[in-house]
């Protein structure tokens, strides 16, 4: 894993992204060189002439592929699957490029060249992905690890290492049992004791040891042996950090408060606040301007369906526990909570109107919250705000729930792009673990990634209810 602005990015994704940047840039110069092969321009002149068009083409195609989830590797990709995912991404990129060339005609390099460049770049990306994915299957990027512990936590860490993504990143050498812990892993995966941990790791060519012991009291943790491993250049990582790195979650069931207190992250500096507010204003104004037609059509459809109010206000809990009134397009009947008590949203909720069902799937119902962002009550990216009734309930049942209120809530967030729509306390726990990751590691880089993932959620209609 590579760490960029506190966010962990897999080695495969990093290599894939770097290769595809190179492929896209080279494709522009290769396509233009073929088209203008009879000209007498020098290499330097040709490079300068097409530098900005190459940058515009590269950024547009990378954005399109990101927006359609081509950098979220959840399953194995062969030639056919990669091609089927690449086609709509390039179609979206072509549409965006058409708009870019209209607004900035000096970047336009002609339809013939554009078609040639798209064919070359698509072929290059297709071949690059197949080669990278095949090499990952052969274990060229594989890391060998040992788990200290053999209980429920160690088993869960092992499952995460095996199944986090389809491309096998980790080879689990085995589990080292500790005294006083019930064994939950299969016997064949256990490593025999009696050998120093550092010697065992060296013999098996292990690069990292994951400490996955639930109860560390009673002296059952081999601290001296773990120190010897670290002094011998073997990385030692605890389970909480492993989950944070691999799943983008901070687990609340096995979390020690000291890990939060003494760990890195939780940037609340003036520079971060300034960048965050600037990002909120720029993105909100841009999306508000682009979405005006959609909001006008939505308003008309809501009114025509039942002649009820178009917008509705609802009390939510924001930063530092302060309440405010969130704005949304009305997607439910006026009597949705006639019983008097707040209710969790359900799959195929009967209270949802026909228009409401559509705007929820497309997330259009959230657009009026841009006004909350402009007022400073919300950020564009952050934990989703909950109603005071649910916050009081969840605070009593879930440890560290109030940590999510240390920053402003957002229109979209880590939990919204990584987890389905929450409708229970159990869902709230899962979403909190993503929210804690964001609160701890929030940065401008992570905000941009979440914004791109949000576009994917909107385009593909994921997670709505």
TrEMBL record:
Transmembrane segments: 12-30, 50-71, 83-103, 109-132, 281-305
Pfam family, one: Bac_transf
Entry GO MF terms: phosphotransferase activity, for other substituted phosphate groups
Domain named Bacterial sugar transferase: residues: 276-459
Membrane topology label: Multi-pass membrane protein
GO cellular component entries: membrane
Keywords: Membrane, Transferase, Transmembrane, Transmembrane helix
Subcellular location: Membrane
Family as reported in the entry's similarity comment: Belongs to the bacterial sugar transferase family.
Database matches in NCBIfam families: EPS_sugtrans, EpsB_2
Name recorded for this polypeptide: TIGR03013 family PEP-CTERM/XrtA system glycosyltransferase
